Model the fold of this input.
Amino acid sequence: MTIFTLIIINKAGGLVYNKAFHDAGLNKISTNDYLVLAGTFHGVHAITTRLNPAKNVPDRATITATPAAPAGILTRPEPPSGLEVLETENFRLQCFNTMTGTKFLLFTDTTQTNVDVTMRRVYEMYSDYVMKNPFYQLEMPIRCDIFDRKLLSHIREINNR
Amino acid sequence: MANMGAAGKPPGKEAAGLRYPTNMKTIYNRSLNRSKTSELSQASFAYLFSEMVSYAQKRVTGIQDLEKRLNHQGHPIGLKLLDLLLIREPPRSQTRPLTIISLLHFIKINVWQHLFGRQADRLEKSSNPDTPDEYMIVDNEPLVNAYISVPKEMSQLNCAAYVAGIIEGVCDGAAFPARVTAHTVGGKEEGEMWPGKTVFLVKFQGEVLEREALIGKG
Done:
């Protein structure tokens, strides 16, 4: 069980962070390729949100009272999430899209469990050590020592388990 | 209609610019001990402090200037904190610190406990005989820097200059005029364990030491 790489993509499709935690397993790619990968994934993700068939939205006339939504209150359908998981024989890619459109991509071993817990933790660290840092400019590449340090120690702990 | 609304209120209240709650209970009506044990959210403080640093960063000429601004933001807090903490002491020990050592202990224990919920990690006197006026308060991981990564090109900066300003306020309020600066010492040989380790250098003014010497004689 291994976590290979973390990539963070901003809402415009630009790569703001990439970090490889494990040398073996996946091919090394250059920073340029990471940028291309981020941009491509951003586009593919945008397409998949459109491909995703809308959930069955009840017609306005046929709405009846349910415990969750009393009569008269229209429920908004959940927005399509788009691509969430991509699995190959070599790795598994999990994508987490925040409310603000930032995407977290974790490349893991196919047998890795609890990726969503790890993802949550990474998101927490991002909100703590990146968003609360007065020297970080939004949408720009992340260069925060404390974020690097905390992330590395957390992932190393998981990889050594 | 707008005129009628305004006529109902006592004249002059709007002009003063202060708005009172309807029951006329402002924070000045509350007991000073009311918020003695209450705690604040660290996240909201982190966001506030982050904005304070960003604000101080506007229109500054350099890192020294930025630290000075942060220092000035903390200074009035220190002045007021001294009074508040002394009044909360039990009546017997309600005197302000009269010697350098008792003042530094007061800062290390009472002020730190009030601000950060724990004591400062160490208190040192400068070992250099040329600078007997310098004392050091050591904090292994200052709360204000918990989420702050200073970029490489500003490595001189330590945002705990704000806390240094608070300490300076306490010293000034107690009639021990001093200059306090914050320095990062983590990342060196023993700093690996505490990368954010910060030293607050307290440099008292000459007259303080003169007075201290006189008190020692008498």
Notes: DSSP finds seven helices and four strands in chain B. The longest helix of chain B spans residues 63-88. The interface with chain A takes residues 43, 46-47, 49-51, 53-54, 57, 147-151, 154, 159, 195 of chain B (CB under 8 Å).
